[in-house]
Amino acid sequence: MTSFRRSSVVARLRAALVTVALSAPALAAAQSGTITGRVVAASNGQPLAESRVFVVGTQAVATTNADGRYTLRTAPGTFEVRVIRVGFQEQKKPVTVAANGSAVVDFSMAVAIVKLTEIVTTATGEQRRIELGHSVQTLGDIGNKVETQPVTNLADLMVAKAPGVVVLPGNMTGSAPTVRIRGIKSLSLSSEPIYVIDGVRLNSSALALGTGGTTVSLLNTLNPEEISDIEIVKGPSAATLYGTDAANGVIVITTKKGQAGATRWTWHGDLGSVQDRNKYPTQYALWGHNAAGALSRCVLVTVASGACAADSITSYNLLADEQVSPKSHGLRQQGGGQVSGGTDMVRYFISGDAEHERGPLEMPAFYRQYFDSLGQKVREEWLHPESFKRNSMRANVNAVLTPKLDVSVNAGYTKTDQRLPQVDNNTFSYIYQAFNNPGFKPTVGCQTNSASCLGYTNKGGLGEILGGFVQFTPGQLFQVFNNLDVDRFINSATAQYRPIPWISVNATGGFDYAQRDRFQLCRFAECPASGTTRLGFVGDTRASDRNLSLKASGASTWQPRATLNLQTTVGADYVNQQSEFATANGNQLPPGAQNVGQAAIQTADSRLPQANKTLGYYAQEQIAVRDRLFLTVAARSDQNSAFGTKFQSVLYPKASVSYIISDESFFPRIAFLNSLRLRGAYGASGVQPGATTALQTYASQTVNIAGSTVAVTGTDSPGLRADSLGNPDLKPERSTEREFGFESRMFGSRVNLDVTYYNNVTKDALINQPIAASAGASALAVTRNLGSVRNSGIEATVTTTILDTRNFASRWVSIRPASRTRPSEPVRTAIRSACRFAACSRATSRTTTRTTTASSSPMKSRWTISSPSWAIPCRATSSPCRTDSMCSSASCT
Length: 893
Prior knowledge:
The protein has 893 residues and is mainly β. Helix content is 8%, strand content 49%. It is built from nine helices and 44 strands. The strands form nine sheets. The chain has a 20-stranded antiparallel beta sheet. A five-stranded mixed beta sheet has the order 11-18-19-14-15.
């Protein structure tokens, strides 16, 4: 295992930063200034809350309150104040602040026709989009998407929303999605991106339930109602400072925060149906006769050879037959509430939510009648084998403890309860059993004369009527109980300290802890009649996963001249991912038993905590020239516990440039072109090996050892035998990426065009190299860094607002990624059109239909109350409030 060795250079930088931070208060105490002001909309003078106001070249930043007011504290001098808000055009104004004096700077912001998020979250903090040389996709306005679209999980928010991002939702209720950003980058390791929520590394593992292939995901414990923003960081050029394991991209999630102002209560409800609208294939039977004239099932081989003469063809789609098909209408129910508010000093957000989705599977009435004839009660988990329940709570608090110290605390708890039936490539799968039907709808007569039914007896192992299923009926298959309970806590705390205007120190700490309980059960005399299954079995696995994240960074700004700004950032972060489990299994249960301790044959297994640790240091320098040319260089050094003992650390460099060339005087003025930004980036990142892949391991084995050379039997004795060979030279897979592109706004800023070309090369790919059996090694393969993967593509996005009036708005987005990967990745095109109606009424109700593997047609209602006054309909008044805002009674009169 790699030993973490502290870099002397980084230690000196950190010591210097701490020294400056400690001495800074004394330096700043003598002189300081204050900038105050108000930000309003130019169209109607309404205050713009949640606007970001900052002083260029310093660390001073503020967010406007509900009345649009802000306060900034800075050193005396002449500065430039900039304000940014989603949906409005950026503004900046000069200001001069005297020593111990104050200045007032007000802003009146014009609406942006194409609404793009101008501030993004990076590994070093928040930055303007125009300063970045790489592509970052911000989904934005998550709250509106959740209100107006059938969103049930995180994957629903990302499907067809960003070029180069392929999201395949799970095919069953609560199942795991597949997410790929810019194709596949590894031959043997996962290509899934990493997730960060409120600064904490998130466990996004897919978990097997023993259903034959379908997995569930810890991502589904996240409640979309609590999410404020999602940013997708694509590729190593953007993810360098996130370190090892970020080569596949990073998805940064931010939860909702409170806004200063009156207490705001929001209630929501969701009721809908879940349907399986897939068209499953039809099975066919080719009827014929052999040479003797006997009825026979023909196949292509026997027809071609002349052994069978075809007479007729029949077909049967069992899953479309309502009498025997388990396909049904599921039910989705969700309800919850949120409360937020506070003052400029303390803001809070609290939410609670309960959700239950019953999948589109139900035991057919035909088989329920069979159990009734046996006097056996049908349990709820048999009747509806597909179910997902989620209860979640969250509390976020932001506080300004002093003018120089801000603190935020985020706490979330989620409990999920999920069960799935046997599916996929599995003889206990209802799909497998249905696909192997005889090609015609059988009758009761098949039981007594199978020859007339091409050999199909229509009788199961217990004498039951199969109804077209090949071996087992849904009545037996749905008795196999698979359940997963998850209790999850995601907590974080962040502190930002600004000892003097040009220095900011940030620290974030948090953890993601999940406790899992997977339970499997087949009671005695239940489940399919296969082998010893009906003798009963039970399995109980308890596991815990913990991700600990710690991060500290410091940034300093310097403005040597009016046209030049410099910002230096140094930092370190530590991630500890740990998991452990204990499992117990029992076979041959007595009647009524359902615990492992009651089984005749009992087995157990466990694993002590297994950890994967990463310690990284990074430094970054950003240069801004005349607020149009932005240069960034950075490097990160990582040590990881999964590296081989002879490989200590890895260095990931990064460089990028962003140039708003249209602001230059020499740039030709083109009538339809409003702005043009050129950008390019280079960066590296990696993916580490498995936690113990580099280690030589041993396996326990029991051996019978005789007491003497003439003894026939001996004593069972425990021992060890060599297992994995390990590799002390093992390194992470290293991905480097070059990215070039441009962003332009045209036709009066009504059209935004974003084009990106990327070229990604992964080297030192981890591959299991075969070893000849004649070598006598304990394993027939060893993991080594051998291969490489190349991945390139072009991404293009066109965004435009076609129509925007008081009561109606239509926005058109075309996303077209063209990528080339070995193996190749399909090209996906998505066109999205959304209509926004006046939302100034207290209650809204929308009906939306979704067509996917599991479709949902929910009816959503949402009520919002601003205390102390109720929100009332604005259409009946002359209020100029916009359609995307909630108006109070005072503003509507």
